[in-house]
Design goal:
Layout lengths: L1 H17 L4 E2 L3 H5 L3 H13 L3 E6 L2 E6 L1 H4 L2
Antiparallel strand pairs: 1-3, 2-3
Helix pairs in contact: 1-3
């Protein structure tokens, strides 16, 4: 399962790197074609590594690559 989550984290990173701005957290499973459970675990993986940042706008949560990751 850990390998599956790591692969999901890579897919999410790639999707976020191509996004023009922050992505609504609820759109990530749809955009990556991952199940919600695996997508959110992948996001947790990226967050633990400091690769993503979260922003709350009203009742919605958005995620984007951290500033250190945008220049990679």
């Amino acid at each position: 399962m850990q390998e599956k989550i790591g692969i999901a984290a890579g897919q999410i990173w790639k999707m976020l790197s191509g996004a023009k701005g922050p992505v609504n957290i609820t759109d990530i499973p749809k955009k990556t074609k991952l199940s919600s459970q695996v997508a959110y675990q992948g996001l947790g993986w990226l967050a633990r590594e400091g690769k993503v940042e979260y922003q709350q706008k009203g009742r919605s949560i958005y995620v984007c690559l951290s500033s250190a990751e945008c220049c990679v």
